[in-house]
Amino acid sequence: MTFEKLGEPALDYFPCRYGTSKLLFRGPRRRLEGDFVTFLGGIETYGRFLPTPFPALVEHETGMRSVNLGCVNAGVDAYLNDRSLLDICGRSRATVIQLTGAHNMSNRFYAVHPRRNDRFLRASRYLTRLYDDVDFTEFNFTRHMLTSLAARSAEKFDQVRQELKSAWVARMRALIENIDGKVVLLWLADHKPCEDGEDCVADKDPLFVDRGMIQALTDATASVIEVAASPAEIAAGRDDMVYGAMDLPAAEEMLGPVVHRRVADQLARTLDRLM
Predict the structure, then answer these.
(1) CA distances from 200 to 99, 197, 207 (A)
(2) Strand-pair partners of 173
(3) How far apart are CA 202 and CA 198, in angstroms?
(4) Which of 67, 77, 175, 212 has its CA 20 to 30 A from that of 87?
(5) CA 211 – CA 109 distance, rounded (Å)
(6) Span of 86-90, 99-103, 198-202, 205-209 with lowest mean pLDDT
(7) What confidence tens digit (pLDDT) does each residue in 7-52 have?
């Protein structure tokens, strides 16, 4: 385990931008010429605390240049609303999309920041009528707000959850359909997707996403890869992560390099077959 001065980052992620996008990605910046594969997703795709996250490992295994467009706070909206990034995906040989939660996107009940999708902006009149006793100005983040609403009323919250699930499927399908070329979906978590009729793990990412929602997208994708990391795999990779002392709680939430190597192996085989 590598520690640096208290509060200082232990890795230089060489932040960079692509095209006209305002989002910051992990660098160094890659050339967008010739054959390459694009990767969309959240903090695991970005590879926080990892010297070599799975997009880079895929490049090593396949010889195909990887363009890592993973973003720490991005949900579906950040990509769907960014024409520049969609154009980059359309120029690639394939696009891998790590599935992100259904909570970090705008919907009938609330709006999120267009780039930092974890940021709650405002409640709609539907939500304020449903929860007429809640002061929504108290919330800055979607997860905090949803946790509070769920604690107040399970019956009311079921309406919110169903809206998020429905909106996620529609938004994901729109994202896939706006990408020219092959799309591979990646489930990456410390648990399997819950089956229809089961209660999804309430506080685990990707939040509210179940197997039925993923299956609703399979007709529009080239492949779906499922990686459910075991506690042993996560623990085995902990010593190879790089972070400062202040980042320990956040680092403990990450899946780690052993899991990323398994993801890369599966993706490399799939991409070789598709291309």
Answers:
(1) 15, 9, 8
(2) none
(3) 11
(4) 212
(5) 23
(6) 198-202
(7) 445 799 999 999 999 999 999 999 999 999 999 999 999 999 999 9
Q: Which amino acid is residue 4, in one-letter code?
A: E
pLDDT digits (tens, 9 = 90+) for 129-161: 999 999 999 999 999 999 999 999 999 999 999
Closest CA to 95 of 192, 220, 191, 201: 220
How far is residue 103 CA from its own chain's centroid?
Answer: 11
Calpha distance 87→248 (Å, rounded): 37
CB-based contact 227:263 (threshold 8 Å): yes
In sequence order, what are the residues at sequence separation of 6 or more whose Cβ sits closer than 8 angstroms to the Cβ of residue 195? Answer: 210, 211, 212
Please give the full DSSP string across the chain, using - where no structure is assigned: -B--STTS-SS----B--TT----B-SSPPP-SSSEEEEEESHHHHTTT-SS-HHHHHHHHH--EEEEEE-TT--HHHHHT-HHHHHHHHHSSEEEEE---SSSS--SSEEE-SSSTTBEEEE-HHHHHHTTT--GGG--BHHHHHHHHHHH-HHHHHHHHHHHHHHHHHHHHHHHHTS-SEEEEEEEESSPPPPTTSPPPTTSSSTT--HHHHHTTGGG-SEEEEEE--HHHHHHTGGG-B--GGGHHHHTTS--HHHHHHHHHHHHHHHHHH-
Domain ranges of the chain: 36-274
